[in-house]
Amino acid sequence: MDLAELNEVAESERSRQKPMRIRCCTAAGCVSSGSLAVKQALDRAIVERGLNDYVQACSVGCLRLCCAGPLVQVDPSQELFEEVKPDQAPTIVQSLLARSASDGVKRGNPAMPFFAKQQPIVLENSGIVEPERIESYIAAGGYRALQQAIREMSPAEVVDAVTKSGLRGRGGAGYPTGVKWSLVAKMPGAQKYVVCNADEGDPGAFMDRSVLESDPHRVLEGMAIAAYAVGATQGFVYVRGEYPLAIHRLQVAIKQANKLGLLGSGIFESPVNFRIDLRIGAGAFVCGEETALIASIEGKRGTPTARPPYPAEKGLWSCPTLINNVETFANIPPILNKGADWFASIGTAKSKGTKVFALAGKIRYTGLVEVPMGMPLRTIVEDLGGGAPDGGTIKAVQTGGPSGGCIPAPLLDTPVDYESLQAVGSIMGSGGMIVMDQTTNMVEVAKYFMEFCMDESCGKCVPCRAGTVQLHRLLTRIAAGDASQAEIKQLEVLCDMVKHTSLCGLGQSAPNPVLSTLRYFRQEYDQSIKKGRISLI
Predict the structure, then answer these.
(1) Exposure winner among 52, 279, 308, 362, fewest CB in 10 A?
(2) Which CATH architecture has domain 142-336?
(3) Which residues are CB-contacts of 37 (< 8 A; sequence separation ≥ 6)?
């Protein structure tokens, strides 16, 4: 395929589109609420009213306001319908012709702060393109960045553009993406690999899953650009086995891209070859750590290994390997399409661009949000999220999943960027954001996340294998009121040991929820002990 053929596909797709589109969310959240039945009902209603030439119903990805699913949105008016039932489909179709304010269908407001204060870059196609139709992605500008990279730029120029953009890895550590790419590009060797880490396992996190379900070609395009830049010919997407819909849509997308010559051999009629295969994880949280992920792809037990050497030097089958996560790759096409300076103009001095968060917990509006780096945490949880439900008050927000910390309400004006979150004892992580209200027991929160880390430890190193067990035992005693002040001191000492002596990031970050709750909610630990003493009298 060349540029002319790409444009021809895009024009054909645009001519196929009807004057009015009804976009029905068929991402996992809405599917679990019955959106497939809603889509079928919409198709029937369009036929029954003889509107086939004027209206079309489309299966799209995540429309972001997940708490109100199933969601349906109408073009060109952008009207949003919430909690749609199949029997409401005729009313929605009829509303395209003559809207009735008393038709009983719950309408949302696309101008509400949840949407208005977002800045979609990674999610710009989410809920718009049809994820199982490559033509829909191409019509939205898809694969033009890949064509530009291969036909108009050298590999070094692509790396330079990513470096200038200031993009940092969205998997949690925030390592500069351009630096990582340049390291792999400079490595000698005929065989190099590109790996997409889609082993999203944080409790409450669903950012990567939604991107893969909603816009899989965007991730594949980002991987292909990366492969061209670093000289790789083989790629792998390592995806959680618990994500069947994401796996299905990736399989469809890879097959479609291969068929059109956008992956495989001779991409855009050039000497560039790049093949992508899927590898399905078996539910091990530790395989999100890059050396454990590499071992799993190779068919070994997914346990971490000491670094150095780093994967950029010695990764898959001892070859130079570039590993980025889903969101990082999804940022690459817009950087090339709109320019590194455009991307670098968004965010803060050290944290460029936007970040996607899965907003969940004790909050009015849950779902996916994408905001510029540096937006205050308060704006996200109170304006976009609507604050605590039922008249409650926000007590804390946890970012970074089991590896992150709990940020108390008085610090909600903290900007959301890598440095600011680290300064208050948390991390950006991959993008989980769990809100807690005044009813939440913070000792129980720390205990929950420690239990998760204890269960998910691979057991290879003693500090993590044994340390998380002992930390969980202490937290259980404290929560039950059976501990003493001496045991809280022991908890702090043990956290320090596990954090500084564990082999990989799982153990090194496991104490973070405990340390942050001790830092900001020490009184709850003390109250648990005091309550236990009173109960013994």
Answers:
(1) 308
(2) 3-Layer(aba) Sandwich (3.40)
(3) 86
CATH 1.20.1440.230 domain locations along the chain? 442-536
Domain 16-110 matching CATH 3.40.30.10: the answer reads yes
* Residue type at 165 in one-letter notation: S
Measured distance CA(349)–CA(332) in Å, rounded: 19
At the topology level of CATH, where does 354-437 sit?
Ubiquitin-like (UB roll) (3.10.20)
Give the CATH number of domain 442-536: 1.20.1440.230
Ordered mean pLDDT values, 10 residues apiece, the chain (537 residues): 89 91 96 97 95 94 95 92 95 76 69 91 97 97 97 97 96 90 96 96 91 98 98 97 96 97 95 97 91 96 92 96 97 98 96 96 96 97 95 94 92 95 90 94 95 93 95 95 91 95 92 95 90 50
Global pTM reads: 0.94
What is the three-state SS of 55-118?
Answer: EEEEEECCCCCHHHCCCEEEECCCCEECCCCHHHHHHHHHHCCCCCCCCCCCECCCCCHHHHCC
Predicted confidence (pLDDT) per residue in 48-102, tens digit: 999 999 999 999 999 999 999 999 999 988 999 999 999 999 999 988 876 544 4
